[in-house]
Design a protein that fits this description.
The chain has 373 residues and is mainly β. 14% of the residues lie in helices and 51% in strands. The chain is rod-shaped, with a radius of gyration of 41 Å.
Amino acid sequence: MTGMRRFLLVRTGFLAVLCALGVSVPVSAQTAGNRWGVDYEGKAITAVFPLAGEEAEMIRRFHGKIMESVAALGKYSPREADIIFGTRIPTDMPPLPSLTGGARYALTGGVYPGDIAGEHYLQLWLWDMAGSTMIYTDDLVYDDINEAMESVPGLVEWLFSHIHELTIETPASGTWPDPLFILGVRAGLSQRWYVKPNEQTPGAFAPNLEGGVSGALRLNSLFSIQLELLLTGDTLVYRGLEDSASGPVLKNKKYTNLSLEIPVLCKMNFRAGNIRLSPLAGIYVNILLGQTTYRDKDGKTDTFSWSVSNPLGFTAGLEGAAPCGPGMLIAGLRYGMDFGAISINGGEREYRRNMVSLYLGYEFGFFEGKKLF
């Protein structure tokens, strides 16, 4: 026995013992790109093992054709399993992961004589190395090697067609709906304090309803601009003694009116878990609608004209939003103040408003992921 044969036998026996003991042997380990079992082109790596059997020439031709057929499928990258000649690999059992070089799939098989003289069959096994489980096995019976070679691509395609990859799209950590445009509706209660010129404390106050629609345009992931149209009302009730011919008389005067507020807001959008928190601030325009309705304690009614010296005002607050159904449920708290004074009946009554509003609403997003710039 020559020294080279003795070396090969010792090396083969040593590897066989390691395989039997389940010891990991690094064989042709290759980097599989940025995901396990996938190469840099995104193709699933498939380890092709040498075929078992005694028909050396058939095995050689089949092996080359199998490698070529796997590559032709387009989604898979065939790699030679670097197994030392003479190492026996069971074909009906999954190969050890250490022998696949980090491959996602593995092909094993063999060439065996059939029951009829001159007949052979090629049997292939396809394995999923993620769980060392069999995907499918089939065989090709032939008596002409050339005809069999033409059938190998079909056999390989048939085996790989049984790979059913379940893709579950899990939102990445921190993802959030990011629409370009948001349309919303809101309604709530606004507590108003009406301060007359040179008055230290409000002479009248009352809660009022307000509501309307809003549209927001996202500038980037942090900032957005929002425009609102809000219909709101004011109710002023003044009580006090007034002089009359018969002496002081308690008067109760009530003024009601409607106005349209148009806030233009800058919002900052922060995320806290499933909640979006949005500090906001901006300027609003107060457009007076119709006339002011007057009513006293005796039931006398009248209407008066009214005007405003400066229709602008300032508002700021905090808004929160959470996913709910197809859109977002929103809630907010705001403070607002008028820059100008409102005058009723040519100056009979004058006041500025200070407001704290609490509201609820719902909004829908459009053009998800689109960018303005």
